[in-house]
Amino acid sequence: MDRAAVEAAVSPERAVDAVRDAFVAHARGEWSMPPKVYVTNYPAGDFRAMPALGGGHALLKWITSFPGNPARGLPTVAGIVLVSDASTGELQAVLDAASVTALRTGAAAVLAAETLGRADAETAAVIGAGVNGRAAVRTFVARGRSVMVWDVDLERATQVASELGCPVAGSREEALAADLLVTVTPGHEVVLADGSLRPGQHVSLMGADGPGKAEVAGPELARARLFCDDWEQASHGGELAHAVAAGLVTEEDVTPIGAVLAGTAPGRASEDEITMFDSTGLAIQDLAIALAALDGADAAGLPRLQL
């Protein structure tokens, strides 16, 4: 399935449901996921191998992240997703990895915002209008939420806003003031400086998905109630990694969002609390999107090729 086929088979709403179910299944121990493996070639970029097992299927995603590629006319993210039958080992599907990644990134960002944000949250913003930022905006819009977009590249932000029918934020400061904030940047520069967040805000940190990346300053982490997609990944290669290495954050300080969704851990505790969700990207999310894509393709009667 190429990008067009994946996007046609999985709507943003279906992606949110699939990712929610995957988080819960993982929290309950029903789906398993060995740690993500990085093969780094910094500063150019990195390669990632991501396996998962669940729902009667096994998955392996081989994907790259090369932030300088757009200047060369190449995509930042590229790769493939392999899906096999877990009972026989038979290869069942090959999917475009960039589209799977975008769907689950947008879904996870918005799911975390809806789960951890204030019930009376009115404004939402996405900082970063690349492929995954666009996916987050698209998911907010699909969920009926008014959202604005901002990017250092105004033309790129304007293009996404025009395509998806939402406004461009008047400034970065306006975007940063949103009740529900999603940051989807390369992670090489801090977006949230000291004192930039106000009480009651939620931020889904989607950009710092590898070693050496960070979107938020350390003191801002200390002000927030912390959540993550997976402690093992977040503590070694996510937004929290710097604070963990410095001994400022421990596993007891961070709540997996899967536990919140499964009802075994509390979410937001008060209206004034600042909540942060550190997303590193999980293979179980990719598996959930891939299975939804196969179901959607079968429902639409799309032909399957013999592998």
Description of the structure:
The chain is of the alpha/beta class. The chain folds into 2 domains: 3-100 and 284-299, ornithine cyclodeaminase, domain 1, CATH 3.30.1780.10; 106-281, 3-Layer(aba) Sandwich (Rossmann fold). The protein is 36% helix and 21% strand. It has helices at residues 3-9, 12-27, 97-116, 131-142, 154-164, 172-176, 218-223, 231-237, 241-245, 257-262, 283-299; strands at residues 37-41, 45-54, 57-65, 77-85, 91-96, 124-127, 148-150, 180-183, 202-205, 225-228, 254-256, 275-278. A hairpin with a 2-residue loop joins strand 2 and strand 3 (57-65). Helix 1 (3-9) packs across helix 11 (283-299) and helix 2 (12-27) packs across helix 11. The longest helix is centred in the middle third of the chain and has 20 residues, at 97-116. The model has no long low-confidence stretch (mean pLDDT 93).
Features:
single chain, 307 residues, alpha/beta, ornithine cyclodeaminase, domain 1, Rossmann fold, 2 domains, 5-stranded antiparallel β-sheet, 11 helices, 12 strands
